[in-house]
Amino acid sequence: MDEPADSSSSCTLPELVDVDVSAISHERLKDLTGEVLNTVLDKDSVLGDLPNNVTLGEVDLQIAIEHGRAITVYLERFDGIVIPIVVQKNGAKVADLKKSIERKMTLHLKRAGERSTISWRRIWKTYWLSCNGKKIKCNYDSISKYMENNSKLIFVKRFREKNIHDQ
C-alpha cells in the first residue's frame, strides 16, 4: 500500500508528498502539478466553473467577480457564439474592455485548437463595439457609461463618416 507513486500514473495531493521531485522530469512535474491544481479547482465552489487549463488571470478575474470588483459582459460574435468577457470595474475604460476581449478571444481560439491569429488592429479599425444600440467610439470613456453587469455587446460595421467638405 505504501508504494511510492509511479511517475507515469496520475497523483492526488496526498500521493504527491511521496514523489521524489528530483527524480522526475520537468514536463512530468508540470503535468502532476496541473492534475493536482485541476482537482483542487474542481472541488472549489467559486473556481469550479473554470476550465482545466486555467490561467492565473482567469482565476484572479473569477475571484474579482465573487468580491464584486468585476463585471461580466457577453460578446456576441457574427457566427452567433456568445462569449463571456470579464472586466474589472475600478475605473475601467473602453480600452481595458478591448484588451479583455483580445485576451479572451485569443485564449478561446488557442483552447479550440485554432492556429490562426487575429489582427486586432484591423478589427478595431473595421468594427465598433455596440451595447444597447449605442456605438462605443472613445477608448478613454468609462465602461460604466455604456454598460453594466450582464450587458450584451455586438460588433457593428464601422462606416466612414462623410466630411461636409466632400459634397
Automatic annotation (TrEMBL):
CDD domains listed in its UniProt record: Ubl_SNRNP25
Domain SNRNP25 ubiquitin-like: 71-158
Signal peptide: none
Biological process terms in GO annotation: mRNA splicing, via spliceosome
GO cellular component, one term: U12-type spliceosomal complex
Pfam families from the UniProt entry: Ubiquitin_4 (PF18036)
InterPro entries in the cross-refs: SNRNP25, SNRNP25_ubiquitin, Ubiquitin-like_domsf
PANTHER family membership: U11/U12 SMALL NUCLEAR RIBONUCLEOPROTEIN 25 KDA PROTEIN, U11_U12 SMALL NUCLEAR RIBONUCLEOPROTEIN 25 KDA PROTEIN
Protein name: SNRNP25 ubiquitin-like domain-containing protein
The organism of origin for this protein: Macrosiphum euphorbiae (potato aphid)
